[in-house]
Amino acid sequence: MPSPPQVGQELSEEKINSIIFKQIEEINNVIKKCTFKQVSDNEKKFGFVERKGKENFFRKGLVDEWKVVLKKDLIQKIEKEFYKEMRELKYL
Hints:
This protein is mainly alpha-helical. It has two domains: 12-60, no CATH class; 61-92, no CATH class. It is built from five helices and no strands. The model has no long low-confidence stretch (mean pLDDT 87).
């Protein structure tokens, strides 16, 4: 890992490239750790605090699944409360 530059230190093009390359590597590593597959696998291995019940928090949701999973009275409340937003997003 390249050493950090000192205040007032002149940096060569090689040193600047080395620092930038290292930062890009670190960003790419974070991106890889944040993929859906990775967080889903991590939940299976280590658990996930926010999980409620037995179903995984990170799971593939299905289109309009909420219409089947939620009770009719709850759907009506949600549709009434968020009608404008749901129409705008083409849920209704």
